[in-house]
Amino acid sequence: MKGGAMIDEWYPVGLFSQLSEKGNKTWLMGEAIEVARDQDGNARVVTAEGKALPVRVRYGHVWSSLGKPDKELFAIPEADQPGRRFVDVGVVRVRCSPLRAVENFLDIAHFPFVHTDILGAEPHTEVENYKVEIREGVDEVWATQVKFYQPQAAKSATGGITTEYMYRVPAPTCSVLYKTCPPRPSEWDVITLFVQPLAEDVCDVWPWMALFDDETPMTDLIHFQQTIFLQDRSILENQIPSLLPLDPGMEIPTRADLTSIAYRRWLKRHNYTYGAQLVAQ
């Protein structure tokens, strides 16, 4: 099976709250699987041949793997922080590489042009200098000191603010975004993108949030985030090539693409190649 080291990673395969004993059929890296709840209420994941796969339930989602993960699912400490609201946004199917979906999430420069008057607006299009590193101790890609002016940074925001961001890539198809929390400036809102690779060129995207927002109705929080991602979907589905190029000479980066460059270098280092294009065609 193609996929290199990615076969041994954890992937989201469904919302735990929506599981039933009847089960839900889906795909993981080209393999048909079924996600269900057993008689004891626990999540179970099996292949079409009936082989049981490893299972974890975390961040509102069921996680599984076709391989043998040698480490536990990455931690998000804010998921255990009292007072936060946890938002299961749902799922959006996107006809693009799962790696493309993550890379787009890391891109700041597109805010004014794709998410106009929400996450960005002209003439505030400049991406200020920020810091990117591959943190060797935890083996994750991090971007810090990211700042961008936004007309409506969150559903709870009442006006335009300069928002500070931190981006974290703890797994090849997952990203965690920490951003300014309008109601609590001393805290971070957490917005994640969990991507399920159905195949190399199609994926299910499961956004999830951990917020300090006691006022906004849950439906509005979900709708706000879905609106953002649906604006991204049309861009993702029209990118050429459809797979994510890992050769640095295949696309011309700019200063705003530092996180993408680090992400691609990190993928290549670990042989995370499922959904990637290795050489120019």
List keywords for this structure.
2 domains, N-terminal domain of TfIIb, eight-stranded antiparallel β-sheet, globular, alpha+beta, Naphthalene 1,2-dioxygenase Alpha Subunit, Chain A, domain 1, 281 residues, three-stranded antiparallel β-sheet, 35% strand
What does this structure look like?
- 16% of the residues lie in helices and 35% in strands.
- The chain is of the alpha+beta class and 281 residues long.
- Strands 7, 8, 9, 10, 11, 12, 13 and 14 form an eight-stranded antiparallel β-sheet that branches. A three-stranded antiparallel β-sheet has the order 1-6-5, with no helix packed on it.
- A hairpin with a 7-residue loop joins strand 12 and strand 13.
- It is globular and about 50 Å long.
- About 4% of the residues have low confidence.
Low-confidence stretches: 112-121
Using the 3D structure, state the CATH architecture of the largest domain.
Alpha-Beta Complex
Helix/strand structural class = alpha+beta
- Tell me the major beta sheet: 8 strands, antiparallel
- Number of domain modules: 2
Number of helical segments?
4
Globular, elongated, flat, extended or rod-shaped: what is the shape?
globular
CATH class categorisation of the largest domain: Alpha Beta
Percentage of residues in DSSP E strands = 25-35%
Average pLDDT rating: 85
Radius of gyration: 18 Å
Instruction: Tell me the span between the first and last alpha carbons.
Output: 22 Å
Helix-strand string: EEEEEEEEHHEEEEEEHEHE
Q: What would CATH call the homologous superfamily of the largest domain?
A: Naphthalene 1,2-dioxygenase Alpha Subunit, Chain A, domain 1
Approximately how much helix is present in the residues? 10-25%
Indicate the CATH topology of the largest domain: Naphthalene 1,2-dioxygenase Alpha Subunit, Chain A, domain 1
Q: Would you report the number of β strands? A: 16
